[in-house]
Design a protein that fits this description.
The complex is a heterodimer of chains A (262) and B (435). With 262 residues, chain A is α/β, with parallel strands linked by helices. Helices cover 36% and strands 17% of the residues of chain A. In chain A, a hairpin with a 2-residue loop joins strand 1 and strand 2. In chain B, the strands form two sheets. In chain B, strands 1-7-6-5-4-2-3 form a seven-stranded mixed sheet, with helices on both faces. A five-stranded mixed sheet of chain B has the order 8-9-12-11-10. The chains are: A alpha/beta (262), B alpha/beta (435).
């Protein structure tokens, strides 16, 4: 659906359903340089299983107008702005990578608007290597290469894609190539600069990939310790692109954590 | 790049798309000779049908063995994914049927395989899709042929029969300025000799029957999408950017972005037209792909030796191969095909003592002992055909000229035999043709 947030055009995928005030709402927040379709299978499932779905394109990504936002707190405020625009008081937030930082920031500063959060492939702090940041700043293709290779488990280029006929590396590259210059850097820099200052008190699920080289499970430990009662699902075979590498495991974990939509 | 590295072409040719089978540990790609797949429960079934979960439902839509070939070709070409089809012709039809409706227009090179020309010039015309054919090296003609309803530019990376080299970057630029994609037939070059996506093409397909399979044992095609063309921004592709009643009002671009084309091609094209690849065929072609990086250099090396021999032979009028300085696309070939201009080429046999070129061609063909006389290319074995006495038998000399060939044109596909044996075979047959 098309929205206007902060005076700019924005887009949220709703799985071809109208929002229904009687249903719970789940918001999917993508990672650096990506868009709503990164959650394709999972967001479609919830849309067809009794939930309101808002799979967002953050500003400057996918179908949402730029420029990109440059700090996680601003991104979190923008997500709350989306909820305001569609008159949803409270939602479940599902974030991936940079989207997980946005989710925890929302949960800490806008606790009344966040029902629970699921964090897929996360780290805190989410420090980005200097070479990666520098390449992104220069809009060098090296940054796309690093994002593609580090963004998947090492076996991905030699293994089978659960999605028949698709090549995960090529898909990631194609998405990154569609970005306007500066978008990937804005995202990565926002991740690099972010530090959670408040407390997350809502129910929280961590979904981590054991073979994640971008946000390895150990990098989520301090955040796990900060959130009392947080649950963790560790997916043995997956790298950082968990929704693509282990789509069913991610979906099943979300189904169990989110419960019923109405 | 300072940092991680991609696997090399040779590694991808052997591994991409397949992990050892989790059920059995099978290292070779298992042949999943099954039509259908048992659902875990009704909920699982519904989720697969509605694209909420990844997996296989029915082998016309996808099959684990076929999926390995698809992913492997996507990896070798640098695309987002691929769809394997019953033939190369099925791949071309699938691409066009996915992109456009009746009332659309294609601009295509004149230098096409005869089957592709027939599909565009006659068959699709019956369904309301028209094609304007242009000489591939006349870039202005591509531009002039564009119409408001043009939806595709199409050519072969190395065209039939004159080995015209398609200037992929230049034609892609024309296509993109018109907000339409460029589709190329990469059969003669394979991803080993050219990766058209790196040059600007948006879609490509192979007749996998040829060099990919490489052994003349299976008919198949593979359609690959770069994922780089922005269908939404173009605004010309309603099949990909508007709700489709045939699949729950899905807007394929909104649903999947970079994967929109392949999603519709699979969910509509394979579902409704049904020109899928059989798993045994995929397995057979995969055996060829695993040695593509070894075979193609050898094909090219042998071709160069044969070309040199023929170019100096007194019974040969002309050799048409882009690596020769007199070929009109020689400079372009050096730029776009640095690893070689393939292993298919043609030459003209001279008339014998009676000056009858058709007769000389016939005698030449019938005198060969190693070359196989048949209508195919890209086999491990060397192949030959004389169009004037076979595929173009009914044509007058004038009509042959319009098709870019003469009564003496002979097409060779150089295989993997000892090159000297091939040269000796050709020499013997050429001498016989001149008597």
């Amino acid at each position: 659906m098309k929205l206007t947030v902060d005076g700019r055009a924005a887009f949220a995928y709703t799985a071809n359903h109208q929002l229904d005030a009687a249903k719970r709402t789940v918001v999917f927040i993508h990672g650096a340089g990506l868009d709503h379709s990164w959650f394709g299978l999972q967001s479609r499932y919830f849309g067809y299983h009794g939930w309101n779905v808002l799979a967002l394109d953050l500003p400057g990504h996918g179908r949402s107008a730029g420029p990109p936002l440059t700090a996680v707190p601003a991104m979190a405020d923008w997500v709350i702005g989306v909820l305001d625009a569609v008159q949803v008081q409270k939602a479940v937030l599902v974030g991936h990578s940079m989207g997980t930082l946005i989710a925890i920031e929302c949960a800490a500063r806008h606790a009344a608007r966040v029902e629970r959060i699921a964090l897929i492939g996360t780290a805190h702090p989410m420090k980005v290597g200097e070479a990666f940041l520098d390449a992104a700043k220069r809009n060098s293709y090296d940054a796309f290469d690093m994002s593609t290779i580090w963004g998947h488990a090492p076996q991905v280029p030699l293994g089978g894609n659960p999605n028949p006929g698709m090549w995960m590396y090529g898909d990631t590259q194609a998405r990154l190539e569609r970005l306007a210059p500066g978008v990937l850097y804005a995202d990565l820099n926002a991740c690099n600069q972010y530090s959670l200052t408040g407390a997350v008190k809502c129910p929280t699920l961590f979904i981590l990939g054991r073979r994640d080289v971008m946000t390895p499970p150990r990098a989520a430990k301090s955040l796990q310790e900060q959130i009392p009662g947080a649950q963790t699902v560790l997916i043995d075979t997956s790298g950082h692109s968990l929704m693509a590498e282990a789509p069913d495991a991610v979906l099943d974990s979300l189904i169990a954590f989110l419960g019923s939509g109405s | 790049m300072a940092g991680p590295k991609y696997p090399g072409f040779d590694t991808l040719a052997l591994h991409a798309g397949q992990s050892p089978d989790p059920a059995t540990g099978s290292r070779a790609v298992p042949i999943y000779q099954t039509t259908s797949y048992v659902f875990r429960d009704t909920e699982h079934a519904a989720s697969l049908f509605n694209m909420e979960r990844a997996g296989h439902v029915y082998s016309r839509i996808s099959n684990p063995t076929v999926a390995v070939l698809e992913e492997r070709l996507a990896a070798l070409e640098g695309g987002v994914g691929a769809i394997a089809t019953a033939s190369g012709q099925a791949a071309l039809h699938l691409a066009i049927a996915t992109l456009m409706d009746a009332g659309s227009h294609v601009v295509a090179s004149t230098s096409l395989y005869g089957g592709s020309h027939n599909l565009l010039a006659y068959t699709l015309k019956r369904f309301g899709i028209e094609t304007t054919f242009v000489t591939p090296r006349k870039l202005d003609d591509w531009q002039r042929a564009l119409r408001p309803n043009t939806r595709l530019l199409f050519g072969e990376t190395l065209g039939n029969p004159g080995l015209d080299v398609l200037d992929v970057p230049a034609v892609a630029d024309i296509a993109h300025r018109a907000k339409v994609p460029l589709l190329v037939d990469s059969t003669f070059t394979t991803p080993y000799l050219m990766q058209p996506f790196k040059l600007g093409a948006d879609l490509l397909y192979h007749s996998a029957t040829k060099f990919l399979g490489g052994h003349g044992t299976a008919i198949g095609g593979v359609l690959v999408d770069s994922g780089r063309f922005d269908w939404e921004a173009s605004g010309k592709f309603a099949t990909l950017t508007e709700a489709y009643a045939g699949f729950h009002n899905m807007d394929f671009e909104e649903e999947s972005g970079t994967r929109a084309f392949l999603l519709r091609a699979r969910r509509e094209g394979l579902r409704d037209f049904g020109a899928c690849m059989a798993p045994m065929t995929a397995f057979t072609i995969l055996q060829g792909v695993e040695t593509l990086h070894l075979r193609m250099p050898r094909h090219v090396e042998a071709t160069r030796k044969v070309v040199q021999f023929l170019a100096a032979h007194p019974a040969v009028g002309k050799v048409i191969y882009p690596e020769l300085a007199d070929h009109p696309d020689h400079a372009l070939a050096k730029r776009l095909l640095p690893l070689g201009a393939g292993a298919v080429f043609s030459f003209e046999v001279k008339g014998g003592t009676d000056g009858n070129v058709r007769r000389a061609g016939k005698v030449f063909i019938e005198s060969l002992r190693i070359f196989s006389h048949l209508a195919n290319v890209g086999d491990a074995k060397s192949l030959v055909i004389h169009p004037a006495t076979t595929t173009h038998y009914r044509m007058s000399d004038a009509d042959l000229q319009k098709a870019g060939i003469t009564a003496g044109t002979v097409r060779l596909s150089i295989g993997l035999e000892d090159p000297q044996d091939l040269i000796d075979d050709l020499d013997r047959a050429l001498r016989a043709s001149q008597k």
